[in-house]
From TrEMBL:
One of its GO terms (molecular function) is pyridoxal phosphate binding. NCBIfam families: arg_catab_astC (TIGR03246), argD (TIGR00707), PRK01278.1 (NF002325), PRK05093.1 (NF003468), PRK12381.1 (NF009047). It is found in: Cytoplasm. This is Acetylornithine aminotransferase. It comes from Rheinheimera mesophila. Keywords: Amino-acid biosynthesis, Aminotransferase, Arginine biosynthesis, Cytoplasm, Pyridoxal phosphate, Transferase. N(2)-acetyl-L-ornithine binds at residues 143, 282. One of its GO terms (cellular component) is cytoplasm. Its EC number is 2.6.1.11.
Length: 405
């Protein structure tokens, strides 16, 4: 049947809910860090499906894991467990601070589970007064009603009626603003160690340590949202590993599945014990297909040569961006870590990140934005050096195009 449907960008406007405004091109095939559209035009991928395709497109380890599992078992309800889920959970526990794992399908669902767990933990241990959740301005934690309200961008949560209560927002990297909100009624503080959607803003080491200390002082859980920063993205398996700060709960998704939908919440045995049988669940969470692919992704990424290679690639990205900027003077700074970088536009180009994004596509490059003032790069963690050089050539042409108007 499918052959009879003429698939064009115009079809999107006819059959899809208009909450997205996709680019005019429709990609149909990917290999490594290259992608081809319907017309056969080739692009270099510096976007990685928004920090998702951590091993590029059609990585052999992921393809074979998917094909192998597809012939065995696709789905079981959580009335039973399965081998891929247990193997993946064991590997996550072995590689992190965590002792227990809960699987979901996305970062939003992992955060939903983390926030529900924090509330349940506080209720069980301290009573109903302890319910305040503190987040930070410009943060992003997902699109469910709970997570979008916890997220620090009112534009995403306004206009849907009464919001979940007991949620406050402090200013990121400003410890005093957090201190002013915290009390014995705070049950959790949730933050990204490196803010992604908010503009690729790294948490200062002193700030992150200060959050940890305040959480300890007020018996509150510290939740790290590592949906975007996790699984090798910053050159460590998780970004928390760059400092001495260890969260109580960590959420992970995006790169974890290398492009297959999967999310996880990691925590300690003591905290996990509050999600007793029946208190939370997910039909597809931990399904064998997703976990088999995620296991292959984790096995491939969690190797010293891949993690060290991420930092080598960061150097190359920064060098190329500096050369482009020397010539064209469009950025004030480049922020971020590993393969999650943000080129911040200077005053002359403020508010125009989308123009650079569109010009990049014109020149055969997939880039991203992180707000109106930041061009974001989140490519494959194993992107070949030649693809970085070629992509940057195209990006320079895009920059020139925007400058010429």
């Amino acid at each position: 049947m499918a052959e009879h449907i003429q698939v064009t960008r115009a079809l999107f406007d006819e059959v899809m809910v208009p909450n997205y405004a996709p680019a005019p091109i429709i990609p149909v095939r990917g290999q490594g860090s290259r992608v081809w559209d319907q017309a056969g035009r080739e692009y270099v991928d510096f976007a990685g499906g928004i920090a998702v395709n951590a091993l590029g497109h059609c990585h052999p380890a992921l393809v074979s894991a998917l094909k192998e599992q597809a012939d065995k078992l696709w789905h079981l309800s959580n009335v039973m467990t399965n081998e891929p889920a247990l193997r993946l959970a064991q590997k996550l526990v072995d590689s992190t601070f965590a002792e227990k794992v809960y699987f979901a399908n996305s970062g939003a669902e992992a955060n939903e589970a983390a926030l529900k767990l924090a509330r349940r933990w506080a209720l069980d241990k301290f009573g109903s007064e302890k319910q305040q959740i503190i987040s930070f301005g410009k943060s992003f934690h997902g699109r469910t009603f709970f997570t979008v309200t916890v997220g620090g961008q009112a534009a995403y949560s306004d206009g849907f009626g009464p919001k979940p209560g007991g949620i406050d927002h402090a200013e990121y990297n400003n410890l005093d603003s957090l201190k002013a909100l915290m009390s014995d009624n705070t049950c959790a503080v949730i933050l990204e160690p490196l803010q992604g959607e908010g503009g690729i803003i790294p948490g200062d080491a002193a700030f992150l340590q200060g959050v940890r200390d305040l959480c300890n002082q007020f018996n509150a859980l510290m939740i790290y949202d590592e949906v975007q920063s996790g699984v090798g993205r910053t050159g460590k398996l998780y970004a928390y590993m760059h400092t001495n700060v260890v969260p109580d709960i960590l959420t992970t998704a995006k790169s974890l599945g290398g492009g297959f939908p999967v999310g996880a919440m990691l925590t300690t045995t003591a905290i996990a014990s509050h999600l007793k049988v029946g208190t939370h669940g997910s039909t597809y969470g931990g399904n064998p297909l997703a976990c088999a692919v995620a296991e292959a992704a984790l096995d491939t990424i969690n190797q010293p040569e891949v993690l060290d290679g991420v930092l080598e690639r960061e150097k190359l990205f920064r060098r190329e961006l500096a050369a482009i900027n020397e010539k064209h003077q469009v950025f004030s700074t480049v922020r971020g870590q590993g393969m999650l970088l943000g080129a911040v536009l200077n005053d002359q180009f403020k508010g125009r990140s989308r123009d650079f994004f569109l010009a990049s596509a014109d020149q055969g490059l997939f880039a991203l934005v992180a707000g109106p003032d930041v061009i974001r790069f989140a490519p494959s963690l194993v992107i070949p050096e030649a693809d970085i050089i070629e992509g940057m050539k195209r990006f320079e042409k895009a920059v020139a195009q925007v400058k010429q108007g």
